[in-house]
Amino acid sequence: MPTEPWExxxxxxxxxxxxxxxxxxxxxxxxxxxxxxxxxLESLPWVNVIPLTPKNEVVLIRQYRHGIGDVTxxxxxxxxxxxxxxxxxxxxxxxxxxxxxxxxxxxxxxVHPNPxxxxxxxxxxxxxxxRLVDEPHQxxxxxxxxxxxxxxxxxxxxxxxxxxxALVLAAFYRLFIEHKP
Length: 181
Description:
Blueprint: E1 7-16, E2 21-28, E3 35-42, E4 46-51, E5 57-65, E6 70-74, E7 77-79, H1 86-98, E8 100-101, E9 104-111, E10 122-128, E11 131-132, E12 144-150, H2 154-159, H3 166-179
Parallel strand pairs: 4-10
Antiparallel strand pairs: 1-2, 2-3, 4-7, 5-6, 5-12, 8-11, 9-10
């Protein structure tokens, strides 16, 4: 039997927080006709940026992540604010988190971070020929270290477990497999 969408019987929004709103959907299975509650985190879209210098170095960031209680190696990224396009958010996040800027953003597409519980998308951009133009302007909840690594070493960083963030892995997949820099 082909998979079909479930009928949503009701929706209730619970607590709203800066980054997400908890939504509870009551839905009916098209197969069993039974009803169940599903918990969804509604969030604004996100962006990730793979910044490349003229020397083909990737501008990476290291920051502490409370969810895992550890420091991760990532690419710059953040939330697409209500009045931003994804590209504008990518430009802003790149400059705020690293001090680097570019005029050459290339869209690498988007992914659904976790469609089982999240309703948003994460857009990935390749920022070409980035240059250091300013000091980073991190917000009070960020402690970010900016590091540069040759693009040719990123696969090794993924293999050795230095890069484990799933959305960063998806971004590099898009770059290496689909865009072929």
